[in-house]
Amino acid sequence: MSDKPKGMAAKGDQDVLTLETYRGVGKFQGKVAIVTGGDSGIGRSVALLLAKEGAKGIAIVHTPKEQKDADAAKQLIEKEGSEALSIPCDLAEGEETCKTIVDQVVGKYGKIDVLILNAAIQYIVPSIEETTPEILEDTYRTNIFPMFYLTKFAVPHMARGSSIVSSTSVTAYQGSKSLVEYSSTKGAIVAFTRSLSQQLAPRGIRVNAVAAGPIWTPLNPASREDENLEGFKGKEAPLGRIGQPIEAATSYVFLASQEACYMTGQVLHPNGGFVVNG
């Protein structure tokens, strides 16, 4: 993206990890993953890192209108030697859609080792008086309901040692005056993570989350007016810049890997240095 926010590090800076400089060591050799919202942003970076780590198959779940981005992500994944499965759908359609996704992946690979619950939308709503049933329902039907449904159908196909990683947000901890609807779903995801981790612990399935922010992803320009986007660009973290998707993606890879085998019910915070005490 050419219009980079002020303070964003340039490619090649020594303190910034890039997809080109990341070196996999086979952490997910032979594993099968589902990544919702895997066509762009953090989701795409997670999918690519899983491929770099040797994953056998990676299912990218995305909206039909993002097929072009999904095709590009699929090519990048396959370039790393992994199989990529593009699944266009609207997660907000509900339980049956989520069951179809799981059935498609299990039908092809016979199992699910990693479930990345990342898809989300956000609406900029300056005042609670301006929210509508449509905005509220769309936000919850997209951001939190599919996490329940996908997990419900995926868990029976997940063996001990499998992992679920969800995307919450720094807004769940700091709040956001113009993202009340979005932030509240992210708070729900924190509770979902902590509660589900206790439920699935006896089965050896770990459940964690990542609360990223501020990260430069397509979600921000897509949901913000120009003047509001300038405000986002000005949110410099203590490290002095807005983060790149891969700088959040590494937290997902760690939590899903064997290296995090004693972590469940936890949230990692790749946010450039904001202290959230969460």
UniProtKB/TrEMBL annotation:
Gene3D superfamilies tied to this protein: NAD(P)-binding Rossmann-like Domain
Family per similarity comment: Belongs to the short-chain dehydrogenases/reductases (SDR) family.
Keywords: Oxidoreductase
Entry GO MF terms: oxidoreductase activity, acting on CH-OH group of donors
InterPro entries registered for this protein in UniProt: NAD(P)-bd_dom_sf, Sc_DH/Rdtase_CS, SDR_fam
Origin superkingdom: Eukaryota
Name of this protein: NAD(P)-dependent oxidoreductase
Keyword Cytoplasm appears in the UniProt entry: no
